[in-house]
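Narrative of activities, Objective 1.

The group set out to show that a structural description can be obtained from nothing but a protein's sequence at a throughput compatible with the screening campaign. Below is one input-output pair from the validation batch, recorded exactly as produced.
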Amino acid sequence: MKNLFITLVTFSLALIIGCQENQLTEPNTSLEKKTGSINRNIIQICCEVQDPFSGTCNLNGRVVYVHQKINRAMNPTGLLEIALHLEMDSKLCDKLGLVHLDWNIKGKSDDIVYVSEEGILLMEKNYQISNRKDIVLHVQYLVTTDGVGISNIKLVKIEK
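Output recorded for this entry:
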């Protein structure tokens, strides 16, 4: 009976390991020709932000990023050249239950930045909100030599 149990467990493990799908990753065409280590990751966004016109709102979504160190002989000493590809995909929801068109936030950007080996770079981006002409989403990103994070998110009035 013990041998039958061990055989079944071994067979089950072999079946599970053999049936796992291989994950395919496609190269990002905007960074294809550069060399260096690549870090692809997702930053989940789930927070409250203060809308200057309708009060507190929920912000839900994500930022997908590709962070790539670029190795060039011409880089300044002590600074690393980093190529960043950011894709924002979020939705803003008011808590008052007002009837309005969807407030979607989408945007893509490609940047080249320089970060010291021990340092952090603060990079700011503004994103348009669909069906809103009075505010933008202002995001402060923290860029390090290893990846990207978000330090602050807020809604900002568009000055006319």
